[in-house]
Amino acid sequence: MLIINPKRINEPADLKSFWYNYYAGYSHTFTKNVIESSGLRADGVIFDPWNGAGTTTLMASVAGYSSIGLDLNPVMKIIASAKQATKSDVIALQKQLSKLTSKIKYKQNENDALSVWFKSDAIANIRTIESFILNQAKYFSTESKVDSLTILQCLMYTALFNCIRELLKNFIPSNPTWIKRPKSEAEKISVAWSSIKNRYKNIVSDMVLGVDASNHTWSSGLAQLVTGTSLNIPLPDNSVDMVLTSPPYCTRIDYGVATLPELALLAEDGIGEVEQIRRSLMGTTTVPREIDSHLNFFGDTCDYFLKNVYGHASKASTTYYYKNLYQYFVSLKKSISEISRVIKKDAKFICVVQDSYYKDIHCNLPRIIEDMSLMYGLFGLEKIEFESKKNMGNLNVKSKVYRKNNTAFETVLIFKKG
Question: Transmembrane residues, as ranges (predicted)?
């Protein structure tokens, strides 16, 4: 199997220029090489239980394979679906844009989650564009709305995500996983209809040009995008021929907060629903009040790491950080057991992970995943490391109190179900 550095560097422009810039994940080139050198039969099914922005499902379609992409965040389902657009999908899109007008009626919500950052005029204009995308249809749940979307609608939603991101640029710090909030009503954003309409249309046009520039075509329906959790994968036993994925890293990144603006746009039930989705995602920074640490065995490497975190002298190590990390490993172990259940005998499980630190304690996540995988009959075949000097840990200047160097390693793990 051909393995290159999974980092998103030197990517072909026609594959990434018009997609949502999701900070997490691996490159299209890495994915393409893995799939093409995997030796899968033509009728093989590729599965990604943490599909994110849809790199696995896109490159599986490009290679002509059926794929299933699972993610609990509805924002990611929309973006991954948008990536499935081909030239035939966008013929009517430019004509459709000419119908965008401020007279389109939209659904008002007193508890609109966009009010965290935007004034009422901006909210009205954003919701007008959303109503245009939905053909003025009304939905009573976020799930029914997202499940109803066509690929074209997902393209248009992704353009609106990018438009909102541009408006919020002053609230997005160097850490791309955190969105600041206005300190007062005066700091909230106001935007005229003509301004947001023109910017939105330009973003859609750029995406259309990107689709036109791509030479890739494939049969419709190759990729199945599903909103769901890796803790309970909605697939039959022994039904998948290869898993290619990257789980949330053990770096306390709140993936819900990272997509708060997009969730605010989608959530039919407002701020409360956004918070509920955030708490349900793997890697959430919220923690349960009590945990029973005697219920789980994660392997020697993980148990030793957690023991050191629990006994660390720094503030809140025992009361918060230990609980946070413990619940992460509970989810990771359950997810690996589910992956083992759904893949066929002799099938490959390819996993991209990165090590990290808690204060001065090394979290050897690749080794932890090796230990957990072995528990469920997934045997290690290969382990390839790539040094990653640019990583999320370097954004936290306070970490230098505990260690001077913060070089991480991106590791590609290859397992086989025995």
Answer: none
